[in-house]
Design goal:
By secondary structure, this protein is of the alpha+beta class. The protein contains 21 helices and 16 strands. The strands form 5 sheets. It has a 5-stranded mixed β-sheet, covered by helices on one side. A 5-stranded antiparallel β-sheet has the order 7-6-16-15-14, sandwiched between helices. A two-stranded parallel sheet has the order 3-4.
Amino acid sequence: MAAKKNQQSKKSLPKTSKKTPTKTSSEKHWLRRYARLGFTLGLWGILLAGIGLVGVFFTLPDPVEVIIAERRPPTITLLDRHGSPFHQLRGYAAKPVRLDEVPALLPTAFLAMEDQRFYEHLGVDPWGILRAIWVNLRAGRIQQGGSTITQQVVKNVFLSSRRTLFRKLQEVLLALWLEQKFSKAQILEIYLNRIYLGSGVYGIAAGAQQYFGKAVSELKLPEIVLLAGLPKAPSQYSPLANPKAASKRALLVLDVLKDYAAISQSQYQQALKLLSTPTTLPVRRARGAYFHRWVVQRLETLNLVGQSDITVYTTLDSGLQMTVENQLHALRPHFEIQRVNQAAVVSMDTTGAVRAMVGGVDWQQSQFNRATQARRQVGSVFKIIVYAAALEAGYSPDSVIRLTRPENTEQWWPEDSTQNSTATLSLRQGMAQSSNALAVTLSEAVGRQKIIAMARRMGISATIPDLPSMALGVAEISLIEMTSAMAVIAAQGRGIEYYGISHVQDSSGREIYRHFSPTHLVLEPRVTAQLQDMLGTVLSEGTGKAARSQSALGGKTGTTQNHRDALFIGYGQDLVSGIWLGNDDGSPMQDTYGSGLPAQIFFEISRIFEH
């Protein structure tokens, strides 16, 4: 029986073994089902991808039409008062140039930095993409992009800047299409004429004008490498906005050209001397940066920006602007000695047309305009308002005032270093010596509200405190407003509305804006003549002697408490200029008075009209 059981057991093994193939067959069945499902899904995937590509293809713009059409933001061209362009911004694009019109080294430099395999690929460069991935992985950050120049043309000319897979597919398809439709030379030409180069300019011709003030055909090696370094990050490497970064980038381009034997050793050494430091870069320095920013803000207020190309005829006098900027630059050593960190200057004619403007010592470090945006105490310059109200109330320049302290001894009273509290002064003497006691005496006698009303008539919009100290210029007023108040006196009492835009034309030459100056009087002729007489005494025998010149007719100094602000505002036959020195944080300067450096700056400005 045992033997039989053993035999039966041994026989049972084959039965078990017969069931195993049954499970394997089941597994194969499921594998076949999964394979069919995967194949079906794959087919659907390919079909959907094909439909997607077809969809992408049908959404592509017509490259020929887009290339013919000039696509760029509207251009704002600023002209000075003589009709000469001094700044272009927004979408400035010059007339396109052909490859045979540019230096041979220029396209070579751009290709060396942007697409070294341009003549080998078909629009998309797989090797370039792999190389960029490898470089970026090794660096741990994005250092290179894999886009070809053809792809950059597609992005710059045809497509939006959105980073989506759909847009990338469009980019690839268009790049391949362009390579079939246009020659390499044509694509490179389109690229060079459309590439954004910072500072609102598009294309190498506009870049040559903006940065170097010359035609693209006149560019030399140092200028070429500066331009070729811009496409990677136009704002970061702009030689106007960031000379240090521009210098570093230009040296990299120069090294690449030397490595590829595109330039000789002597060319390399000569360019190296100019590009090694930011101060030696061959860049045309922008003049009137604070002015043109102020003008553009005014254009935006008038809703004249962004609709079409416009030409703006401004009031800027480029020669005077250069004089002012050079004078401030020459005085920088004195600024350091006297702990002066900032300065502002505004000059206008007797119609209110602003001829020059500087809003700070360095535009690249700070774009805050201290001539128009800052509100600071103006000190004794405000006394021209007090004296105007007093003269209108019946006083004359020869009226003698006794400077007595009010009976209420608790009332605040200023102290003068030039006279005691029981002295007598005429208005002419008080203006020349900048007497605080006389200014407060007049203000209290005439009435503070009349002083405030006079300030409003003369163009001061700032809040003026109804306090005895008001007469000493404790109100915080912008330099341009205080200068325009002096301009009222220089303009024989006529109301002044300062401005920087004369008129604006659209692309067809049609005038779309014009400024009209006020013609009404805000001061009586008698008051104006008396004020001019007194302000002339300030220059001849008073605190403004340092500002006296052949062309200067009158002016007033101002110094605030602890030398936090120093001002001089004066005028000649054709020009009114206001100068302010101080520190943004309100810290005291070192013995800096309005009769010192500000008066000297005015003297240098006024001398331009003596030649």
